[in-house]
Amino acid sequence: xxxxxxxxxxxxxxxxxxxxxxxxxxxxxxxxxxxxxxxxxxxxxxxxxxxxxxxxxxxxxxxxxxxxxxxxxxxxxxxxxxxxxxxxxxxxxxxxxxxxxxxxxxxxxxxxxxxxxxxxxxxxxxxxxxxxxxxxxxxxxxxxxxxxxxxxxxxxxxxxxxxxxxxxxxxxxxxxxxxxxxxxxxxxxxxxxxxxxxxxxxxxxxxxxxxxxxxxxxxxxxxxxxxxxxxxxxxxxxx
Length: 239
Fold this sequence. Notes:
Blueprint: E1 27-31, E2 35-38, E3 47-51, E4 57-63, E5 66-70, E6 84-87, E7 91-92, E8 102-105, H1 110-113, E9 127-134, E10 140-146, E11 153-157, E12 163-169, E13 180-182, E14 188-196, E15 201-208, E16 214-221, E17 226-233
Antiparallel strand pairs: 1-4, 1-7, 2-3, 4-5, 5-6, 8-11, 9-10, 10-17, 11-12, 12-15, 13-14, 14-15, 16-17
């Protein structure tokens, strides 16, 4: 059975990935558990909000073990635009996940996903291109190019038929040209895409090789609205 180092916690261990950098400043970090956001760099300061475990934020302006935290969609490197401050040891660039047969990766209600997304709910999301590439060091890459900046939801299923599921809400039609992509990869066997016009919602499903263990890392390329999943086999479990 496959185990997913990025998505799932195995025997209480933390899953591993590297920091994804948003725009040209800050770094994407995650709280280890429910974490308070403070108005100032002090535990005595009033609360301005909370982060859920695993909720991504853009962190910058580290001072006295406190980060200023921003929405991941924030483009201005301006401390006045911060949501507040979080005690740095409570944040990590390793994504903490929950173990289950089906796992959500930061799945939240539309109201809580990101502050700026309330402004985007009425906008459809266009999928311009889906592509697969086998890169150096046996990395397998899935690229999704959108018509605007967008962060999809991720979930996964373990077991005999492991899958990684990418969900796109308010998706505009993109035809059947990406209905099935046979990859020829060792980790990603095929990519299937469907869209329900009644919701509307699209899902891109990666059928994974059940005998492999692997790391998964999401990468955001804001400059060209491209979302990437990088998947690498976990060789350490062979030893």
